[in-house]
Amino acid sequence: MEHGRLAVDLEFERARRNAVDVTLDPRTAHPHLIVSRNGKQVRHGDIRQDLPDNPERFTSCVDVLGKDGFTSGRHYWEVKVGKKTEWDLGVVRESIKRKKQISLSTEDGFWTLGLRNRTYTDRLAPLMGDHLQRVQGRQKECYDRSVQQRIFLPGNRVMLLLPSPECKLYGRWQGPYEICERTEPVTYRVYHPDHRKKDIPRERPETLERTPCGGDSPCIAGQ
After folding, report:
1. Which segments carry the region annotation Disordered (predicted)?
2. What number does CATH give the domain 1-78?
3. Percent of the chain scored above 70 by pLDDT?
């Protein structure tokens, strides 16, 4: 459990390296919202303010946007919601509708986290999934360009990068294990310490050193 908390803390520390200074844009604020002079706070007022109906301003939905937008990169910010029982936070497309009632859906350009009736809502998953697919696609393209197919033979000894017993989020080289057979082009069967055979798929096995079975130096297979 301690290792799990450590992993989460490390992830937050990495995210904070991408912290941005968010300032709210009063030109976009709904007339019921009162934005502080420095643009760092907003509160709901009881009286609808008499404000210019400029194109940027929300007039139906009680929303406000930040001044600065972005098209790429990593961005991190923290928001204190206080004791509010209903709220929504997230990112939107610049082209969203501002003069009509809208639904906070990804189809309408909203990716948000929210609180309603003591239940949290999450509309960020589609955005994260799309981003992950693009990143994986770029990684695969780069991987395919640099791949060098290596073949291991029965009797070779290899080191395997396996999840650490202390924390499965971290990998650790273990072995050496002896290869029994090659079952598929990139899958091998090795002798595991518990004396059972185990299939180990390798998308890109790399050999740093190879010796016949019984040699003194193990091979190393890894990503």
Report:
1. 197-223
2. 2.60.120.920
3. 66
